[in-house]
Amino acid sequence: MNMWRWDLKGALFIGFCAALLVAFKGLLRMKLGLSGHSMLLMTFMYLVCLAVVPRIGAITACGLVTGALAMLAGVGKGGPLLLIKFGVPAIAMDVMLLLGAGALSLRWRCLVLAIAGSLAWATKAGVVSLLAGMTWQIASAKFAMSFFQGGAFAVAGALLVPMVVRKLVAHDVVGESGSS
Amino acid sequence: MSLDSKRRQSSLGNCWRNGFEFGSGYKLLLVVLMTCSVFVVPFVYLPWFSLLAIGLILHGYFLGASLKVLLIFGLVQTAFTLTLYLIFHTAADFPSALEALLRLFLAVVPAWWFAVAANPDQTASLLQRLLPYRWAFVVAASFNMLPFMMTELREIYDLQRLRGARISPQQLSNPKHWPEFVRCVLAPLLIQVIKLSQQLALAARSRHFGRHSNPTRWQPPKEME
């Protein structure tokens, strides 16, 4: 599937979803005091993107555009590392979609993709710890904590998606199959 | 002389004249090089990286950035990692833990500095050159829509709170209220965003967007002079 030959409408929707995600991070800043809460909105927006633009690569595109916009807007402390922060879970979700998650029902697809995204998110934390020179026990502990905290928020975000998709279908802005 | 080499010379000239004021491309290169090398260099080189990081922190501070983010990151990572080391190892392993923490901190400082010091116009211009034109347009359009999105989000949020929706920051700390937030704020916003993307795509297509083999790209005002 050629990523660069998408229709402009879908590409713009992905870009606007990315802008919305950055706006949320900049504006609301839900101070839940827990690590991994960024996975909630991230997973939600990625899955909405997939529901409206049902193509392999839609989530990756949304992740990378979000990273680029966050970098431009100066959100957080990440700079260019934001591309990795937003991009890695998105790529993992797309890989899982390629491996057959697309055949599942909407609710189960969202759950499986959310778990894949949080797994990638936690793996990134573990790998960075190992690269920094921490022992494998510490890296594993960081991986496990990131996975459970990020995973809980990601699953919560994924469970909200079917409700939104139903609303979008009811307003006739998205077809029954998901495409806008 | 080609346009690219002229642009390169002019950019290098500006670097020379303005000292620290070099372009986003050079800043990005510095961030990538420093972040990658801080994980692989031997310990003896870390003091040099620390000196460079102190310079970047001072530069960011004099540009008006708050050091709170870096401070919180450092404290949280230190407390969390040392606790884990106490659980899994002994206090004798603290020096290796501190070295790892130093490497982590030195990897974050350049990224923070980039977020503070990079000119968004220059970074956008850099992205325009790196991305395919269709995605460059998407990034530019989305970046320009960011203030509009924030205003819409705030307006919808305020209106929904006025009508009594249970979506205040305190109420949102309870997951029970998240579906209401999605129903009241996110769903209307997404409907608006879908319609906006359809309108913008139609407007761009009607102006023959994507028909030319060598399309023009947005440039920051300084480069156009």
What are its keywords?
heterodimer, A: mainly alpha, B: 225 residues, mainly alpha, 10 helices, 0% strand, disordered N terminus
* Alpha-beta classification of chain B: mainly alpha
Helix content of chain B: over 70%
Give the terminus-to-terminus CA distance of chain B: 19 Å
Number of helical segments with 4 or more residues of chain A = 6
Q: What number is the mean pLDDT of chain B?
A: 81
Number of E-type strands of chain A? 0
Morphology of chain A: globular
**Please, how many domains of chain B?**
2
Q: Using only CA atoms, what is the Rg of chain B?
A: 24 Å
Transmembrane segments (chain A): 12-28, 40-70, 82-104, 111-131, 143-165
Keywords (chain A): Membrane, Transmembrane, Transmembrane helix
Protein name (chain A): Core component of ECF transporter
Provide a concise account of the structure shown:
Chain A: Keywords: Membrane, Transmembrane, Transmembrane helix. The complex is a heterodimer of chains A (180) and B (225). Chain A is mainly alpha-helical.
What would your notes on this structure say?
The complex is a heterodimer of chains A (180) and B (225). Chain A is mainly alpha-helical. Chain A has one domain (7-170): Arp2/3 complex 21 kDa subunit ARPC3 (Orthogonal Bundle). Helix content of chain A is 73%, strand content 0%. Chain A has helices at residues 8-27, 38-52, 58-73, 81-98, 106-132, 136-170. In chain A, helix 1 crosses helix 3 (58-73), helix 2 crosses helix 6 (136-170) and helix 4 crosses helix 5. Chain B has ten helices and no strands. By secondary structure, chain B is mainly α. The two termini of chain B are 19 Å apart. The radius of gyration of chain B is 24 Å and the shape is flat. In chain B, helix 2 (24-40) packs antiparallel against helix 5, helix 3 packs parallel to helix 5 (94-117) and helix 7 crosses helix 9 (178-206). Chain B has helices at residues 3-18, 24-40, 46-62, 68-88, 94-117, 120-130, 133-162, 169-172, 178-206, 221-224. At the A-B interface, helix 1, helix 2, helix 3, helix 5 and helix 6 of A face helix 2, helix 4, helix 5, helix 6 and helix 7 of B.
